[in-house]
Amino acid sequence: MCAHDDVRGDGDWSRLPSDANVDVAVEGLRMLADPTRLRMLWLLCGAELDVSTLAARLGATRPAISQHLAKLRLAGLVTQRRAGRHVLSRARDHHIAELLDVLVHDADHRRALGRHPPAS
Question: Whole-model pTM?
Fold first, then answer.
């Protein structure tokens, strides 16, 4: 589906989601509204990574990455497991990857259509 296509016809779009689901969705989107967290979650959709690796890949400090990970974990977007001395993080499940893919794909379409300012 492209940006100029009609709204999807599958699903019951006439019934509003529950308040609880809207609250959880909004909290998840708030977490994704930060560029570092969005990029971090993108990487975590492809692999389990530790704080040092994320810091190196994102050009950020380890404490900053740890704080971002804590927020993502509290929002239920990231899971962690211990592997020896390392704590490995990853995206919670395939829904996160699908959401990020749709968001980035849509951003590409909006930029191509001139409906959003160019990236800085």
Answer: 0.81
